[in-house]
Each structure stands twice: as C-alpha cells, then as structure tokens.
Amino acid sequence: MILFEAIAALVVVPIAAAAAYTAADCAATSEKYSLIPYISWGSTPENVKPLWDAAGCNQQMCQYWADKYAIQPYRSWGSMPESLKASWDHPSMKCNYHVKNYNTDTCTHLADEFGLVPYISWGSTPDYAKPLWDAAGCNQQMCQYWADKYAIQPYRSWGSMPESLKASWDHPSMKCNYHVKNYNTDTCTHLADEFGLVPYISWGSTPDYAKPLWDAAGCNQQMCQYWADKYAIQPYRSWGSMPESLKASWDHPSMQCNYRVKNYNTDTCTHLADEFGLVPYISWGSTPDYAKPLWDAAGCNQQMCQYWADKYAIQPYRSWGSMPESLKASWDHPSMKCNYHVKNYNTDTCTHLADEFGLVPYISWGSTPDYAKPLWDAAGCNQQMCQYWADKYAIQPYRSWGSMPESLKASWDHPSMQCNYHVKNYNTDTCTHLADEFGLVPYISWGSTPDYAKPLWDAAGCNQQMCQYWADKYAIQPYRSWGSMPESLKASWDHPSMKCNYHVKNYNTDTCTHLADEFGLVPYISRGSTPDYAKPLWDAAGCNQQMCQYWADKYAIQPYRSWGSMPESLKASWDHPSMQCNYHVKNYNTDTCTHLADEFGLVPYISWGSTPDYAKPLWDAAGCNQQMCQYWADKYAIQPYRSWGSMPESLKASWDHPSMQCNSRVVVRSTSVSSSSSPSSSSVSPPPSSSLSSSSSAVVGTPSVYPTAPKDSNKDVTKTDVHLDDCIRLSQAYEIVPWVTWGTASSGVKALWNLYACGVDFCDYWRKTFGYALAASLDAVPEIRIFRVSLASFENGDLCLEIAMASASVAQPRLAALATAAAVLLPLASSAGVQYTGVSQTGLESAAPQLPSAATIAHLTAMGANVFRFPVLWENFQSTPNGTLNSNYMAKLDAAIGYVTAASAASVSIIDLHNNGTWAGVALGSQAATADAGAFADLWGKIAARYAGYPTTVWFGLMNAPNLRLGTCAETTLWYTYVSKAVAAIRATGANNMILVPAALNSTAETWQSPCTNGDTMHAIVDSSFAYDVQQYFVADGTPTAGTCTKTVDVFTSITAWLKAKNQKAFLSSFAVNWDDVTCQSLLPQYLAYFDANSQQWLGWAYWAGGPNMPIGGFYYVESQSDSTDSSLLKLLASYFVNRTTTSSSGGTSSTTIIVVAVVVVGALLLGAVTVLIVVKARRERKPGLPRAEDEDASFKPVKKRANTDRKSMMEERELRDAVKQMMLSNNVPVKDKPETRPNNALTGKQRMRLDAASATETFQAKNVNLKDTDSSQFSHFVNFTSSRFQVESQAPNNDDSYLF
Predict the structure, then answer these.
(1) What is 134-180 written as a DSSP string?
(2) What is the torsional sign of CA 25, 26, 28, 29?
(3) pTM for this one?
(4) Tens digit of pLDDT for each residue in 433-471?
(5) Does residue 365 sit in helix, strand or coil?
(6) Sign of dihedral through CA atoms 522, 527, 528, 531?
(7) How far apart are CA 1101 and CA 869, in angstroms?
(8) 1082, 1095 in Cβ contact below 8 A?
(9) Distance in angstroms (rounded) separating the CA atoms of residues 601 and 628
(10) Burial group, residue 1105, by CB count within 10 angstroms (0-12, 13-18, 19+)
(11) Which of 45, 510, 662, 779 can bridge 479 by disulfide, Cβ–Cβ 3.0-4.6 Å?
(12) Which residues pair with 1031 in a beta bridge?
C-alpha cells in the first residue's frame, strides 16, 4: 500500500504498473479516501484515480466487502454500512453475482429472477451470472428446492409443480426423483420394481446415484410388508405367490421378514414374549389367540429359561443379574424350575444342590429330584465338591480334616473322588511336598511314598520339576557349583532321565561353554551331537553370542588382527553373519576401529555410513572416534595445519569437527626432527571453545618457554621451512602473541609452533612487509578508528626493541592512547564469525506455491551465501491434520532444496513452517483449533522421515514466529508441548537434522525473557542437534514494516547473555531493515558485526527476504540475478556472507578483499611497538606480574639477531627505524566533521574477524581516547602482502567499496 501511494504521488510509473496490486491495495485506497465505487471518489487524488481504474479495483471491492462485513448475497447485509449498499447493488457492480459467498438463496434467486430452468433454458440469465450458477452447483440444489416449494412426492404426486419445470425434474442430468429427501414407500417399491433390486441379494441394474436414496429411505425393511401384501405371504405357513428369486432375501438374517410383517409375529418364543409381555405360567399378556398355539407347539415355556439366563446374565443360585422383578416368579415356578434347566451352571449350582438335597457324591443322592440329577452330572459336580469342601472346612490333605463332618469323609476318600489329589490346598500344591514328606528321590528311590500318591507324582510330571526346586533351594550353579545340595540327591540330578543341568534356568556362561565342548556344538554351523532336550537351553541362555567372548579369551583372538590359537573348525562360526564376533567381544583394538570405518564408510561425527546397529556400541566402547585421527594422519600423510596429504574430501569435515580436533590430537611424525627431541611427540590440546576474554588480552607475563626456533632440530630451519599460514592459524586459535604470551597454547601446540619456527618468521614478515609499505606513504597515514588484528607484537629482536625505545620518549602520549585502544580491541577481535549466512526465499508459503529462482540461488551462493530459508505452509503439506503429505507440494520443496545443493553441496536449506502458530488461520491450542500438538508432531515426523538422509544440509524450522494469541504467559508452556512432541517425533524417525526451536510470543530477541520467561521454558528441550530460532525487527513496534530503526544492537544483549549462561546457540532466522531509511542503513552493519563478534552464541542469520512473493523494489527486497543488478543492500549483506567472493564481476579485487590495509598495517606496527615496549620495560624494571622468560625457564635463550652482512639489508633497517620514528612523531592529521558509517569488511580467508563499530567507538570515548578520522582521498597507497591470502588495497573515495565505516 505504501508503495502504491508512493508511485501515485510521484507519477513516475505507467498506469499498467497498477496491475501488480491486490484487492488489499484497492481496499486500503478506498478506506483512506472514502472512495465508493460508482457512487463517490471521496477525497481520492487525481493521480490515484487512473491507478484505481487500471487495477480493476471496482470489482475487487465486492469480495472485499463480502468478507469484511460477512455479507450473504440475497440473504443478509451482515454489518455493511448503509453508505455502501448502493454501490453493492449498482448495475455496474452487481456484487451479488461476483462474490464467492454464494448459498442456496443465490441459486433460487437466480432461477426465480431470470426464469432459469436447469438443462432446459437459461431464461434471461445474463452472461455474468452464469458462471456463478455453475460455481454454486445450482442445478442439483433446485431439486430439493422444487420438492419443498411444490410439495412434490416422487413417483406419487407432482404437487403444484408447473408443467414448464417437469422436463427439468426428469432430465437425465437432474434425476430429481433420486436426489430429494421427500422419499416415501412408493420410492422404495418403484426402485425395486424398476431396477430388479433384491435387498441384500442383488442391486440389479440400480444406478449408483439411486443407491444412496435406497439406503436413506430405509427401503430394505419396507420391502417385507410390501411383499407380504403383494404376494399374500403367511409367515411359517405359506409363501403365497412370492417368486423364488425373492425368498432368499425374505429369509436373509438382515431382513428377517418373518418377524417384521404385520401379518404374523416372530418365529421364536422370545419374540412373542417380548412383543406381547407374555410371562410363562404367569400371564399371556397381550398375546393374540392365533399366536398361543404356536407358543405351546414350540415348547416355549422351557425355552425362556435359557433366553432369560443369557439376556439378563443370571447366575443360578448366585445372582439375578438384571432380570426384572416381574419375571422372577416365572423363573421359580414349579413347572419352570429354571435353575435346573439352564447351561449357566457354576460351582454354586453344585454346592446348592448338595446343600439343598443332602447329596453326598458317590455315597448318596439324598432327596435330589430326578430332573436335577442330569444337571449335577452335566456340571461335573462330583469333582467340584472336593475344592468346595477343602475351602469350607479348612482341610489340609494328608494332615488335617479341619471341621469336615464325618458323613462326608467317605466321599472325600472315595476312589472316584481322590480329593487329596484334586484340590489346590494340597500341601504346598507342588511335587516338592511329596518329595520332602516321603523322602522321594526321582529315579533313585520312592522313599516312603504311599502307593496312592505315586500316580499323582507321575501325573504331575514331578521328576523334572524337582530340578528347578533343587537349583533354587540349594543355590546350584550348573557345571560350576553344587551349592548346599545333599550328596543323596546328586545321583538323581545327574541321572540320564533327569539331566537337570539342561533343565534349570540357573544357566550361566559355563552352561554354554560346557554344552559346546561336550557336544561339539558350533554356533550357526553345527549342533554336533547336542540332544534335543539341550537345544532349548542353548537358545534360552543366549549361548550363541556368549561364545564369541569365550573363544576370544580362550584362544587369545585379536579381532581383525590375529586368530590366536583358534581351530579352523570354529572360524566360520566366528565370521557368521548372525554371530559377527568381531563386533561383540571386548578384545577390541585399533584395527577394530579402522576396520569398522573402512568396511561401513563410517565418518566420525559426520555419518554412520552403513554401520549396522549392533556394531555402533562397539565403536563407542572402543573409543574409536579419537583413534581415527592418528590412523588418518598415518594413512594419508597428513601434516596438521600444513597439508591434508592424500586425505579424501569426505573425511576433512570429521577431522576438523569440534569433537574430533584431530589437528591437536595426532602425533606429528616428521623425519626432519629426531625422535628423541621432537616437540611433536606430545599431543596437542584442542583450540579454546570460547572467545578471548578481555582479561586475557593484556600482557601479564611472558611464557615459560618463549616461542622460538627448535634447538634440537637435526637440520637448520630456514625460511623455506616456515609455513606462515600454519603459524597464523595457531596464533589465532590459541591467542598466541609472538614473543609476548603463549595464550592458551598447550605443550603440544608450543611444540608445533617451535617446529615451524613461527616466532622467527613473524618478525621478518612484519618488518619487511609493513615497514616498507609505511615508509612509502608516511604523510598519508590515518589514525586508527576501527582496529582489527589478532597478532599484536613484533619479534623480540634488537631492531623491534630499538624502534620502540627510540620512539617512547617523544611519543609517550600517543603510545598510551594506542595501548588503551589495543587493550579494548584485542578481545573484541578474536571471534571467527558466524558459520551460516544467507537469505530467505519466499514462494512456497502461498496458497498457490511458486518455486524460487534457481538462478537467484546460484547467484547468491556465488556471492557467499551458504543458507537458504524456505517458508512453507502446513496446509500445503496436509489438506487435513494428520493427513498424508501432498506429493505435488513435496516435489516443489524437493526442487527448491535441489537448487541449493546444485549451487553448493555444503549449503543448508531450512524448511520454515510459516504458519505463525496457526492451522488454517486458527491459533493452535484455541478451542476452535482442529490441529493439536499430536498433529503438529505428525507433520514434522513425516517431513523428517523424508529428509533424514540429509542431516547436515536440511534443517527443520519448526514454526515461524509462533503466536498462540492467548495474551498471557501461559502461551509459553502451551507452545512447549507442541515443540517437545515435534522434536520427539523427528528423532523417532532416526533423523539427526538440525532443529531450529522457536519460543512463543513470536520468538523475538526482545521477548526472550520478558515479559515472560520464554527462554527458560524452552530450555527444557533436550536434544543433541538443535538451536533456538530467533527473529527480530528494528522499528518501534518490532514488526517487518517501513519506518526508522529505533533498536540498536542492545536488543540482542539480554538473549546473548542468556545463551552464554545456558551454553546454547541461536539462529536469527528472520530480520530486515528499511533500506530506504538512512538510520537503518547505518545500523545494519552493526547488527551483522555483532553476530560475528558473538559467534559462540549465534550460528548465523537469514535475511528477510527474496523470492517470487516479495515485491520487487520493496524496502526490504534483497535479491538480484547478476552482479550488474546487485542492490546496494545485497552488496552489503554479501560482504558478511560466510563464503563471500574475493573478486567482483569485472574480475578485479572486491571491496571484501580490499579492506583498509592502513588500519591493519598501522595497527600491527604501532600496537606491536607499544606491546614490546611494555614488555621490555617490565623486564628491565622487573615489575611484579611481568617476569622475564629467562627467569621462568633456564633453557630460555634470546634468539640471536640475524646477520645483516650486506649493505642493502642495513639500509632497509635504517629506513624502517626512520619511518617508524617519523610516524610516531606525526600529529598533523586532518579531521572530518562527521565520520561516515559504512559496513566493516574483513580479512579474506577462512579465519575472519569482525568488530562492532558502534560498541568500539563508545568504548574509546569512555576511555577518553582521541581517535581521529581522515579524508580517504589522502590514503591512496597500495600494499601487497607477501602472503597472497592477505592482499588489501585502498581505492578512490568516490568508490562505494573503498571506505571503512
């Protein structure tokens, strides 16, 4: 809208440009100027009116009003103001016919107004209304409308329907008879007769559109009475004239016509009873006379007993269940006696019979009536009485009768009863009681066991049961220990028919090894002579895998290295795919690790390759990750910090991984240094994990062993032996200041430093490079404003000391200021910058998704971007929550990600769910929401499963700016449930991709901990690969809108401190500034520099935005297709891209590489001189805290000054002394009124350093350091570093790429 008005105001764009504007733009113009189409222009400016017309805004207002005021055409004006209604109905608007809010009234109104008859005549319907008729599906809606309006009865009566409409009603494309709800019996019979439909048998020729009508009208059951009447059917007596083809349907279980027609009643006794309230022997209820003979003939009285028992869940003698009181008298009637006629008998049935009639099993029937005796036998009551008596009288078999009456004991002991052997109260209810009581020893002696008990022993299978009983009782360990087992039982344990060793669960490793040795069993190769009864024990004890370690120990096997003394007959088993002994024994060694890596393509911390799950624990147990470093170093001849040797590219990321740190862990195997004295023989500690703190920047002492050349080398280290790049990496990684402090370097790092002779080379490099460059342009040297360098000292040689001392007396104030600046800036310059920088690419988040441009992505990648964020829409993935993923949409997302990987295989694609905490516009967690946390997890689980194979190049952005609209801090905990379930679902798929976890309340930096504890709530997320997803915009209200930036880098201070305290990282997934605003232009470089300076807490950023959904030329539109059209905004961003290019499109040196060399040169030189001066003075004055190196280590010897025998070298040193002295004495430097604020570029190469200009300036001012700026036109010298990696130049002041801030 802002762009719309801006264009209109300037009148610089053709009218055709208005076609790009949406209904929202038209609506905004209407609201602003009170414009009412065809009624009033309101206050619309003249230059806007042509744009309004060209954009077709008049018609666009119809839908806008319909949505805004909830208008129902022909039905309700909604909340539309009176002032707009005339425009709505205007003949040139005709909004009723142009909006999508149609309804049934729309159809009927069109038909009535224009005399439209479906499929017969359009009547006078105008052309513009015809699409509305079709879109609303009006043809079919007219059927029900006519049926209701004219009281039509299908097949029965036309009602009052005009003749002119009947042809449409019967039209083949209408078939109204089959589409209206006014169906009746005639409908069913007509369908059956017309199409030969037989219920539950055949649809005949019934068309598909008529089948739902049949079901809706309940026609199946209506056919019973129709047939009964039509064919004079007498249920159970006569089919009448019914055709054979219908009889199967009549009898079909789902029809049951016998029970549904009024011509008769059911074919069962139960139906009569239920239908007429008939109670046997109590009341006929309303049973008609013609039905009573059926009842008697069918013997229904007794049938009712079982019916009731099942229906009401009656338990005879125990429970009436849900039986009504009105039926109980019938149940107990002497002629019914249901208790004795139903199959629902139970123990209570038996006990009740016994107690009621005095029945004693096998002794006396007592007074039991004849009709009850069959029930006793059917229920098996004789044996049930044993347990009943045992419980009732507390009988202890073989020990006590309890309170059992004498009259029952004969029955208890009866041979056909044998109650002692049938009750659960039998002693301990196990064979062990017999054994203990009678001294029975299986297969050895019956002891005193009575004959009647012996059958029980055999029947219960007691012999084998004794094995486990003894094992537990005496703590027996098969093959290992008898425990406390009596000697008298051991023969039974070992008896061939017992074989207890093979039948107890107390198995152990000896069990397995004994089986193998005894029977010649070879796992997965041969069972040998193992008997069948022993095989289950082998499997139950898991012996197969136990053999691996047994063999490894027995035969001294070294996996992958030596078979030891293992017999050939066992080797096939060791290597069997189901054994995989190499991966299951603890005898692992280095060869184990290397073999796993080579066999399965395993790359530590990068990819498991094809490593099977069973091998992964072995890898971890053997500590293989770190072992690979030395293996690779030896295999590929790697020289840490010097050469990759022949190492494949696929392994380098693992070598450099923070958890590997191979450079610092391998033993440097060098032939140029003797093994006895080589400093590389000790391992090197990894680089520090955090940036150099401010306290570590000050020079607090010299190292215990000063960095110098190796003293015991077996050959002289000359200039050709020094690798300056390696020295620079060591200095930056471990904060080494040459000749001043070791920083955080370990003994191993010091050894590498000395091996490379880094200290000697640094002095020569600075002296011969910086000195001559400065000497050529002393008159144009500016003061330091933004100082960026991590190497801050000269060599501890006579020349550097002399320069510092000679200058000290005349330039003391200037040196003091520079020393203060150095103390402030050094700690800020130690950060290596963020890892991921790029741009969001819109298009896929719209309802009609569009692919971003492959050319744009390729161009941005060439400029240095390495991350692309793709906003996507949940509704595009799934049409309904928990649904399947839309294959067409997934193909587009695949294509977008493919553009990124095609441009660079290492670049990252972020799948950003751009729903802002909603589904279909409804906030998640609200009462109206149809998508819950489970649906959210379902979506991410399915996405993760698809992209699990891209763990490093596809990230999952769970939700863009989630806002659940609760208005309270409860939103944070509610959102946590969604996130936690999504993270769990992703990991459940096995995906290890990076997850970007947003907080609630739009997940902005400024709301991270206030007003709600957003961050602390999300800190409960525990995962191995995630970062927090943060957004921030910089206008007053924090939204991505035009305006002046009012928020400085301070907006990130709180969250950065929180991240540092929690040891977490974040990713700034969305931010932008109004590039048309000068304040925003000045602040953007500061934001970007801030993240580089705090890269320990920030992974990187993605700028919003480019892509097909962004308006070209908008205030935050960023992208371009080629260098020739790169915007100034993109150029600025590109200077901060991680992989930014070093050359411009014209082939020359770019502004990223052309960093103000004077700053680096002068800073290095002056700060070096100052630092050395401080060190020299401290040594001479022997102040506390500044000990001399020779005091700390007797082995310290200053490096001898290199011989300068030729006249040229002497001249060079003299010129350098004079140049530095003159520079230090110079104070006549021009000053500009207002320093320019521009993006700070950085040294090229992998080790980048940036500084926040604003915070640095504030620090200088706070310390009263007077830093001046100079006109860049005076600074035109060109400096070439001897190392090609640091080529820097300054350019003319009118070139945007030339000036620093």
Answers:
(1) HHTTHHHHHHHHHHHHHT-BTTTB-TT--HHHHHHHH-TTT-GGGT-
(2) positive
(3) 0.35
(4) 788 888 999 999 999 888 877 877 887 778 888 888 898
(5) coil
(6) positive
(7) 10
(8) no
(9) 13
(10) buried
(11) 510
(12) 1004, 1070
